[in-house]
Specification:
heterodimer, A: 204 residues, alpha/beta, Aconitase, domain 4, seven-stranded mixed beta sheet, 8 helices, 7 strands, 33% helix, B: 466 residues, Aconitase, Domain 2, Aconitase, domain 3, 3 domains, five-stranded parallel beta sheet, 19 strands
Chain lengths: 204, 466
Amino acid sequence: MEPFTQLSAVAAPFGMANIDTDKIIPARFLRKLRTVEKGYDPWLFYDMRFDTDGNERPDFILNQTPWRKTGIIVAGPNFGCGSSREGAAYAMLDWGIRCVVAPSFGDIHYANEIQNGMLPAILAEEHCAVLRAQLQASPGTSLSIDLASQTITGPDGKCYHFQIDSVYKERLLKGLNDVGLVLQELPAIEAFENKHFARMPWLA
Amino acid sequence: MPRTLFEKIWQQHVIVDKGNEALLYIDRNLLHDGAFHAFGALAKEGRKVRKPRQSLATADHYVPTSGREKGLANVIDTDAREMIRLFDVNGAEHGIRCFGMNHPQQGIVHVIGPETGFTQPGITLTCGDSHTSTHGAMGAYAFGIGASQLKQVLATQCLWQRRPKTLRITVDGKLGAGVSGKDVVLAIIAKIGTAGGTGHVIEYAGSVFRAMAMEGRLTVCNMSIEAGARAGMIAPDDTTFQYLAGREYAPKGGQWDEALAMWRVLPTDDGAVFDHEVSLDGNAIEPTITWGTTPEEALPVSAVIPDPASFADANKRAHAESALRYMDLKPGTRLTDIEIDRVFIGTCTNGRLDDLRAAAAVLKGRKVTVQGWVSPGSTQVKRDAEAEGLHRIFEEAGLEWRASGCSGCAAMNGDFVPPGMRAASTSNRNFEGRQGKGARTHLMSPAMAAAAAITGRVTDVRKLMS
């Protein structure tokens, strides 16, 4: 997994609360195979981006010229609630979005972002609201994010400290793979299994 | 020190505790036909399934609910056909028990877990689906994961996890006639919000849940994720044990007695402390439906559509405004004045035998005025319902009686609600586009959906019961 250290990119404000993973990628696209050549970016926010005839909706933010190269989303509360579909993380990542700043996240989606080397940065809603207003006022503005110091620098140079759990921060900074981290503990796992299944053999 | 149900299970499954994170053992894992991303990643990394017997797989998301006895070749949607084919291939390659499309035990993953006894009290259980919270109704710690974490469980049978906080929701009292587990959980979500449980495991406690049958408990825990919770749990008791006894994967003979002794000490000790507590009055819960596009936008059936301007929270106000636009509804409209175009009864939330009985009791001897279909939660539920003649009640009323699958809830198998149409649905999510592009969803109980099917509008089922 590619480590995440710093990111400077165009940031798009998504003010609405509860952006669910069905919105991020509608279910009908989850059957698509994902390859290096053909990513999930065409399906990102599909029903918000396109009308029923498949034409771009000009009022949707990612269809507007300054935000076509969005690399960061600044969202409202409870981003990524709902379905566990990892396709939501794939679609953002394949589009080029590597960080979502929000006051809170759906639990499963939060884990999915971490697993894909994306940064789910938790920032108080009052600060997110300021950033969203600034980004809306000057379309195409960038934000700078530094994971090591847990800071986001706004368009006006103001610095915000965001929250991320220390264990996830380390994983992202080093680009660690969870399967590898688990298998380091194999002797402990096997010892646990011996004891556990001796007590409850019907579960083995 | 007194411990909660969750804490007891957590402590029994921690292999390595690093304080802020623990390596957790996963007793059982469920798979469905959307798991191909995880199998693909496993193959790419050259890994094998470490404990195939601790997984069980069923095809539910992509399977059609009609015409499938004609086999895979008859599945018109080529992408869906490929998903169902891959499901069988992956299961066979990794030696995992698989209930494929035409297997007699096929069903929705969250229905067949409890139904086969694969889900048991005290275990940890994962599945690559957010509604895995369902299984907590059996007294398990069960939670949904994404494809990457599913790959980890398959490869290692373990997960690194932060310990969640605990939230106890106590509902005391007695539910009125026509009020079910669905109404209780919608009332809970309306109160605490779609993020009210984020980062928490909910334990549902109180006389309402003690008196509730397994089916109702499964419905309640199923929708824990709609309150943002990682899991929902209900203490195992005689209702749980009677439900489980004799099921295929449940312990038998002397092992049953040993298991029972362990399960009986799982419930939360007196004096155990939760991080948060919420309570509701069970006597006051009415049949409840959603009016908006998130499950917290729910109200008793006697209510009117609220005016977003009356919402103090700016985010909630903006959401409600957008929801009313999408739903094409106006503030002040009585919920019972909302006209319905489609009815869908089934799903991992409300597709069990008790749910179908509740809907059939309302439909018996009546005719529906809108199109709709019933998809039992599993092929076993289908057989049981047919043995009781429920299918005839649905068909005589004018609803279609289909095969089992996620159907119009995930809307990935060709079953969907057409654009602009309004559905009375027993599913779990009323998100924009969830039941099909432009589809408008009102979540409600099976009895309420049956009532809406008869009158063609949202209806208080209690008025059809006397």
